[in-house]
Amino acid sequence: MSTHKILKEFEQVYDETYNLILKYVILKCSNLDDVNDIIQETYMDFYWALKENKKIQDKKAFIIGIAKNKIKKCIKLKNQLKTTSIYQEKSEEEIAVDIDARN
Predict the structure, then answer these.
(1) How far is the C-alpha of 35 from the C-alpha of 4, rounded, in Å?
(2) Three-class SS of residue 21?
(3) Is 21 exposed, middle or buried (0-12, 13-18, 19+ CB in 10 A)?
(4) pTM for this model (two decimals)
(5) Does residue 25 contact residue 67 with C-beta atoms inside 8 Å?
(6) More confident residue, 92 or 32
(7) What are the residues whose beta carbons fall under 8 Å from the beta carbon of 14, sequence distance 6 or more?
(8) How confident is the model at residue 83 (pLDDT cuts 50, 70, 90)?
(9) Mean predicted lDDT score pLDDT of the chain
(10) Which pLDDT does position 59 carry in this prediction?
């Protein structure tokens, strides 16, 4: 398929599915920055699938599947990044004492 045809098909599917995909991602993900990233990555993956001539029978379902996987990946990454400190935070006074002790 030519680049022009791929872009035309992409734009048509994007216009038809964007609002649905946006609503789906917003419902599953509360952080607006994450929502924007997931939407962008979802449509980039869809574009590359078109460019690679993948046989996609139901484009809407295909895009929702991509978005679903991106959301899962995002949530998994956020859970991995969460850290819980086992130490109590030092007060400013204790930090000042620590700094003075180094000299």
Answers:
(1) 28
(2) helix
(3) buried
(4) 0.73
(5) yes
(6) 32
(7) 43
(8) low
(9) 83
(10) 93
Dist. CA 88–CA 78, nearest whole Å: 23
Provide CATH code, domain 3-102. Answer: 1.10.1740.10
Dihedral, CA atoms, 11, 16, 18, 19, nearest 10 degrees?
Answer: 150
Q: Which runs of consecutive H residues, i.e. helices, occur in the chain?
A: 3-28, 32-51, 59-81, 92-102
- Token output for 7: 């872009």
Residue ranges covered by each domain of the chain: 3-102
| Amino acid present at 42 | T
Q: Copy the structure tokens of residue 9.
A: 């098909």
pLDDT above 70 coverage of the chain, percent = 78
**When comparing pLDDT for 32 and 95, which is higher?**
32
Residue bearing tokens 């400013």: 92
